[in-house]
């Protein structure tokens, strides 16, 4: 079945540092890929998405590129802020109607001033 | 913009009691998904509905049941509650075509005592 593997956390960085959170997936066909962010005590917010190979999703300075050859969708940000502290989930879904999201285990990110 | 509405936000129940969680999807979204998130864990898929019919089923206990009504809202019914059912329960909706992403509600925090 489909699955997502994220780099283990927690990750702690200083403000303005470069961020990479690795995400690899196993899926049949060509899934859609997503990054969700969860702030403390809140729900899951869509951060960015990509629906086909070589697509780059971007939002709020975060980027991720759909790499089919390496089955990866790594999340990057050039300069993190304290406000980026949250849990980040990589997820995929099959490209069919009404398909569920499959999540990775999440990576807790803490940014220190 | 309208979001996914879940109620109640918090719920405290005793063991062996029954709980009902409600979810109101974004207008014109025809698919609803339910997820359970334990402390420090990734969301686990429970069940989904497309056009008021169950479309997929995950790790949902037999003690739980759910349905989607004619107005597309959904309810998750949980009976014979156990301590291990304490978790965040998220509802998400999508317009069916997953390339548009999924929108999550803020969740219901269920505590079983």
If you had to describe this structure to a student in words, what would you say it looks like?
- The complex is a heterodimer of chains A (113) and B (113).
- Helix content of chain A is 0%, strand content 50%.
- In chain A, strands 2, 5, 6, 10, 11 and 12 form a six-stranded mixed beta sheet that branches. A four-stranded antiparallel beta sheet of chain A has the order 3-9-8-7, with no helix packed on it. In chain A, strands 1-4 form a two-stranded antiparallel ribbon.
- The mean pLDDT of chain A is 93.
- Chain A has strands spanning 3-6, 11-14, 19-21, 23-26, 32-38, 44-50, 56-59, 62-65, 75-77, 86-93, 102-103, 107-112.
- In chain A, strand 10 and strand 11 (102-103) form a beta hairpin.
- Chain B has strands at residues 5-7, 10-13, 19-24, 31-37, 44-50, 53-57, 64-68, 74-78, 87-94, 103-104, 108-112.
- In chain B, strands 2, 4, 5, 6, 9, 10 and 11 form a seven-stranded mixed beta sheet that branches. A four-stranded antiparallel beta sheet of chain B has the order 1-3-8-7, with no helix packed on it.
- In chain B, strand 9 (87-94) and strand 10 (103-104) form a beta hairpin.
- The termini of chain B are far apart.
- The A-B interface holds A 32, 34, 36, 42-46, 49, 51, 89, 93-106 and B 30-31, 33, 41-43, 45, 48, 50, 55-56, 58, 90, 92, 94, 96-99, 101-107.
Topology:
The complex is a heterodimer of chains A (113) and B (113).
Chain A lengths: L2 E4 L4 E4 L4 E3 L1 E4 L5 E7 L5 E7 L5 E4 L2 E4 L9 E3 L8 E8 L8 E2 L3 E6 L1
Parallel strand pairs in A: 2-12
Antiparallel strand pairs in A: 1-4, 3-9, 5-6, 5-10, 7-8, 8-9, 10-11, 10-12
Chain B lengths: L4 E3 L2 E4 L5 E6 L6 E7 L6 E7 L2 E5 L6 E5 L5 E5 L8 E8 L8 E2 L3 E5 L1
Parallel strand pairs in B: 2-11
Antiparallel strand pairs in B: 1-3, 3-8, 4-5, 4-9, 5-6, 7-8, 9-10, 9-11
Core attributes:
heterodimer; A: 113 residues; mainly beta; six-stranded mixed sheet; four-stranded antiparallel sheet; 50% strand; B: 113 residues; seven-stranded mixed sheet; 11 strands; 0% helix; globular
